Amino acid sequence: MAKKSMIERQKKREHLVAQYAEKRAALKAIIEDKEKPVEERFKASLKLAELPRNSSPTRLNNRCQLTGRPRAYYRKLKLSRIMLRDLGQNGEIPGLVKSSW
Fold it and tell me: Which CATH number do you get for residue 86?
């Protein structure tokens, strides 16, 4: 189980990313538009830098839905390898059988 503080920090980041998504997209569109004057593009890049760092989508980590573990994460199932194994062994994931030989 991950620390509660890390899970809460991740939730805060997710909220900030959603909150600033439109503003970030608009500023990035201005920055990437080569037709606009250099001064306007530079001002847009400064405004983008003023936004909170945690509002950037690259700061998000994939975490297990059940334990909050950040490593060994399966995107398709949104679970860590440990929980995938436990749930598979208990028969709670349809079509998944733990192999043994």
Answer: 4.10.830.10
